[in-house]
Amino acid sequence: MYEITRKISIDAGHRIADHTSECRNLHGHRYEIHATCQAADLQQAGSEKGMVIDFSVVKEELDRQIAQLCDHGLIVDVDDEMMTGMLGVASDEIKTVRERRVARAVANSAGFKVYLVPFPPTCEHLAKHWYELVSDALQTRTNGCVHAKKVRVYETPNNYADFPSAKLIAGD
């Protein structure tokens, strides 16, 4: 199995409403997102010959699925009524995200870039969410030849979450 990793960085704000420490306050991070992609074989022809996938293709999908929606924006839990109220997120947008359990960029009366998610925007949830978006996009784009093995999200230089996580080896 061959694998490559491409990373991007974004800046985004969030808060964890129910957290008991400083994370309950609105704050920002320089997220670093690493997408590790796998293929059983290298490309046999064309401009990607000898590659799992061109790094630029992975970057395009990371930009499309993550950066365009979240960079320099606020990632807000749909159930954080203080934030959705303060930002003036329309009730129909809130209802849509709650009912469909699908994140989306939403319009708001404050004019801020807001990405409304159906979960607390922890590093762990974001890793899973971004993994699902990137994985689906790469599978579609490569006709199933390349898949995302994992997405690693650094919330700070010292803290990160992986999805999916490595499986425990028996005896560990």
Radius of gyration: 18 Å
The CATH homologous superfamily of the domain at 2-72 and 124-163 is called 6-pyruvoyl tetrahydropterin synthase/QueD
Class by SSE composition: alpha/beta
Please describe the biggest sheet, giving its number of strands, its sense, and whether it closes into a barrel.
7 strands, mixed
Q: How much helix is in the residues?
A: 25-40%
How would you state the average pLDDT, rounded? 94
**What best-fitting shape do the alpha-carbon axes yield?**
elongated
Number of beta strands: 7
CATH class of the domain at 2-72 and 124-163: Alpha Beta
Percentage beta strand: 25-35%
**Architecture of the domain at 2-72 and 124-163 in CATH?**
2-Layer Sandwich
Strand order of the largest sheet: 4-5-3-1-2-6-7
H/E element sequence: EEHEHHEEHEE
- As for the CATH topology of the domain at 2-72 and 124-163, it is Tetrahydropterin Synthase, Chain A
Figure out the total of helices.
4
Which blocks of ≥5 consecutive residues have pLDDT under 50?
Answer: none
Terminal Cα span: 24 Å
